[in-house]
C-alpha cells in the first residue's frame, strides 16, 4: 500500500497527506520516486527524488580509457543506445580531428534512426498501457522485434550496442541488412495507419491527454527541456538541424512541432518522428556511398590533446551532449554527460501542481522518461 503521512494543517484548511509514487510503482518505469503532497486526489506538490539507481557513469569515465568507457554509453539510455554511443565517439573524433568515412556516417544515421523508431515504439506501447490499453503494446513490440533482428545481425546485440568505433564502425553491413531495412520501412509505413485508427483517433485516448500536462514554451526553456517535450510546445529545436552533425545535412526531413503544449501534442510529435525517421533511412539507403567504414590512421592508444571538447546529438528523448576535458593522458580528466531525461523530468513539479493524480501519470508518461538516463 502507498505510504501516507498526515500533515498538520491550518484551521479551516483541507486535510493533506504525503503519497509516495514509487520507487517501484509501474507508472514510473523504473526506480524513480515522486513524493506527492496531496489534497484528496489533487496534487499540491510533486517532488521527484532521484538517485535510487545512480551508477556513477561520469566517475567511471575518469577511471577508464576512452575505448574502455565506450560500452558504458549505451547503458545510460538503453532504449537510445546507438545515439548515445554516437555522441561519445563524435566528441573523441572531434578532439582528434578524425575524418570519418562517409559510408560509416551514413550507416550511423541509418542505425541511429532505426534505434529512434525502436525507442518510440517502446514508449508508445508502455504509455498506452499506463492509460489502461494493453493491445497496442503487443503491436509495438511486434514491430520493434523486426528492428532488433536487423540491428542484431550487424552488432550481435539487441539492446545495448557497441557498434560504433572511434573513427568509424566495427564492421560493414551486408546486402541482407540493406534489403531487410528497406522491407522494414515499407512494413512500418503500412502499420502507421492502423496505429492511428487504433489509438490516435480513439476518443477515450484523446480525452485522457488533451489539455493535460501543460508545459509552455517558456517552461521548457526554463528547465532545459528538449526533444519531443519542447517540440510539443511549438519550438522546432532539434540538434540534427540546430547543430548539424554526421551525415544529417545530406538528408531532407522535417522537424515535427505542435503548439498545444499538452500531452497529446507530445504524443503526436513522436508519432510524426517515426514517419520522418523512415524518410531519413530511405534516403540514406538510396544514397549510401561505397568505401571503407573506418578512418585511416586511428591511433592505437587514444590520447586527446589537452583541451575542452563537446559534441551533441539528438537522441530519442532530446539533446545528449558529451563534454570531455582532457589533460593529454589516456584517461580523460573529466567527462560531463548532459542527458535529456533529467531536464524533462525537472518541469514535472511545476507543471503537475493542481492536477489530478490520474492526469499526472498520463503527463509523466508523455515525458518518456528513462530512469538510468536520470540516475547516470
Brief descriptors of the model:
376 residues; alpha+beta; 4-stranded antiparallel beta sheet; 9 strands; 13% strand
Architecture overview:
- This protein has 376 residues and is α+β, with helices and mostly antiparallel strands.
- It contains 15 helices and nine strands.
- The protein has a four-stranded antiparallel sheet with strand order 1-2-3-4.
- Helix 2 (66-73) runs antiparallel to helix 3 (81-96).
- The chain starts with a strand and ends with a helix.
Strand order of the largest sheet: 1-2-3-4
Largest sheet: 4 strands, antiparallel
Shape verdict: globular
- Content of β-strand: 5-15%
The parts where pLDDT drops under 50 for at least 5 residues are 1-11
> From N to C, what is the helix and strand string?
EEEEHHHHHEEHHHHHHEEEHHHH
Alpha carbon gyration radius? 21 Å
Specify the number of helices: 15
What structural class should be given to the helix and strand makeup? alpha+beta
Classify the helix fraction into a percent range: 40-55%
Span between termini: 29 Å
Mean pLDDT: 94
Beta strands, count: 9
Amino acid at each position: 500500500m502507498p505510504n501516507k503521512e498526515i500533515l498538520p494543517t491550518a484551521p479551516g484548511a483541507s486535510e493533506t497527506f504525503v503519497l509516495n509514487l514509487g520507487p517501484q510503482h509501474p507508472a514510473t518505469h523504473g526506480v524513480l520516486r515522486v513524493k506527492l503532497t496531496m489534497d484528496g486526489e489533487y496534487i499540491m506538490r510533486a517532488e521527484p527524488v532521484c538517485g535510487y539507481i545512480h551508477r556513477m557513469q561520469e566517475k567511471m569515465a575518469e577511471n577508464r580509457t576512452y575505448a574502455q568507457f565506450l560500452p558504458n554509453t549505451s547503458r545510460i539510455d538503453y532504449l537510445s543506445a546507438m545515439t548515445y554511443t554516437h555522441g561519445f565517439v563524435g566528441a573523441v573524433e572531434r578532439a582528434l580531428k578524425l575524418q570519418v568515412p562517409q559510408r560509416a556516417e551514413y550507416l550511423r544515421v541509418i542505425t541511429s534512426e532505426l534505434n529512434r523508431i525502436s525507442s518510440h515504439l517502446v514508449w508508445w506501447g508502455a504509455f498506452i498501457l499506463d492509460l489502461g490499453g494493453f493491445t497496442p503494446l503487443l503491436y509495438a513490440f511486434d514491430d520493434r522485434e523486426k528492428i532488433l533482428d536487423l540491428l542484431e545481425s550487424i552488432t550481435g546485440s539487441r539492446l545495448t550496442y557497441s557498434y560504433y568505433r572511434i573513427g568509424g564502425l566495427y564492421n560493414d553491413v551486408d546486402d541482407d541488412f540493406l534489403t531487410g531495412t528497406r522491407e522494414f520501412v515499407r512494413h512500418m509505413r503500412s502499420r502507421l495507419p492502423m496505429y492511428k485508427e487504433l489509438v490516435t483517433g480513439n476518443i477515450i485516448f484523446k480525452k485522457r491527454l488533451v489539455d493535460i500536462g501543460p508545459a509552455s514554451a517558456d517552461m521548457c526553456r526554463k528547465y532545459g527541456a528538449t526533444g519531443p517535450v519542447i517540440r510539443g510546445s511549438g519550438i522546432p529545436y532539434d540538434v540534427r538541424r540546430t547543430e548539424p552533425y554526421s551525415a544529417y545535412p545530406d538528408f531532407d526531413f522535417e522537424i515535427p512541432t505542435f503548439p498545444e503544449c499538452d500531452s497529446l501534442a507530445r504524443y503526436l510529435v513522436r508519432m510524426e518522428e517515426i514517419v520522418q525517421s523512415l524518410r531519413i533511412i530511405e534516403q540514406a539507403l538510396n544514397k549510401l556511398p561505397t568505401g571503407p567504414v573506418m578512418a585511416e590512421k586511428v591511433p592505437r592508444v587514444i590520447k586527446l590533446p589537452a583541451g575542452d571538447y563537446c559534441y551533441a546529438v539528438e537522441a530519442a528523448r532530446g539533446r545528449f551532449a558529451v563534454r570531455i576535458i582532457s589533460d593529454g593522458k589516456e584517461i580523460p580528466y573529466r567527462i560531463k554527460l548532459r542527458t535529456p531525461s533529467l531536464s524533462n523530468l525537472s518541469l514535472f513539479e511545476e507543471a503537475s501542481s493542481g492536477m489530478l493524480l490520474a492526469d499526472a501519470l498520463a503527463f509523466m508518461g508523455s515525458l518518456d522518461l528513462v530512469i538510468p538516463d536520470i540516475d547516470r
